[in-house]
Amino acid sequence: MPRTPIQIQNLASENRKLARRLWGEHLDSTRLSCLRDITKHFHLSVAMGDLRLLEGTWYVTHTGLVRLAQRRHCAGIEIEALSQFCDPSSARWSFKATAYKSRSCRGFVGHGDADPSNVSPLVHGAEMRVAETRAVNRALRKAYGIGICSVEEIGSFAGQLASSSESKKLPQPANGNANHGGPKVRDRLCQIIRQHQLDPNLVKSYATDFCSVKTLRDATREQVENFVTHLADWAEKDRNALLCQLNSYLGQKEGAA
């Protein structure tokens, strides 16, 4: 069902308020004006993870594009691997995606490629899925006239993740009783954050609350493993509800690392 003008106005207001909370130091009148226009034309939601602000530039997410396609009653997306550009032995993949806005639509084509050199280290081993996602994103952006790039398409997203690695990593234990800093648990948590487009600072606040500790340094490995399992399960089953839970921690001071 199409949004009413009042609903669009409310969404624009919600986006502006949440954007200021998340990226206030990077926002100016130009970026806020751009956010207003994006909201007006595509009805994308910051709270639902449809948009991200990286290095002062707005990017749409795969989640946002898929939700937009659903609202616009996309007839389907056809995907095929381009075998001549694929090399599984070196984790190099290339896909072609065709989005059909209606049954009579001739299709909008997008291509996507991925290899270890242009994806985040957090998703090494998942290059095939990244390439497919990039192809779908480009096809949907063409179909619905979205000029801003998608997060998943940019190789520099790895740099953005690296720059905030301190907030994503679980802190090392202060004593020998806790050992939640193991690479497997930490890597899985980073993978979940990346896959579901979660805010690492909010995840950290939620983890502290979930484990009933003042700081994650005080949590046991078992507690952290339970949290990671819980987070992954919730993200898969009901990401929207998880985002609401995470957003409840906005403005709260994080525990000291």
What is the average of the pLDDT values? 83
Which structural class do you get from the secondary structure elements?
mainly alpha
Distance between the termini: 46 Å
String of helices and strands = HHEEHEEEHHHHHHH
Strand order of the largest sheet: 3-4-5
Work out the radius of gyration. Answer: 19 Å
For the sheet with most strands, the description reads: 3 strands, antiparallel
Count of DSSP-assigned helices: 10
Name the beta content range. 5-15%
Q: Could you walk me through the main structural features you see in this protein, from its secondary elements to its overall organization?
A:
Helix content is 47%, strand content 11%. A three-stranded antiparallel β-sheet has the order 3-4-5. Strands 1-2 form a two-stranded antiparallel sheet. β1 (51-54) and β2 form a beta hairpin. α3 crosses α4 (127-143) and α9 (221-237) crosses α10. With 257 residues, it is mainly alpha-helical. It has a domain at 164-257.
Draw up the topology in text.
Blueprint: H1 5-23, H2 29-42, E1 51-54, E2 57-60, H3 62-71, E3 76-81, E4 93-100, E5 108-114, H4 127-143, H5 157-163, H6 165-168, H7 183-195, H8 200-210, H9 221-237, H10 239-247
Antiparallel strand pairs: 1-2, 3-4, 4-5
Question: What are the main properties of this structure?
Answer:
257 residues, mainly alpha, three-stranded antiparallel β-sheet, two-stranded antiparallel sheet, 47% helix, 11% strand, disordered C terminus
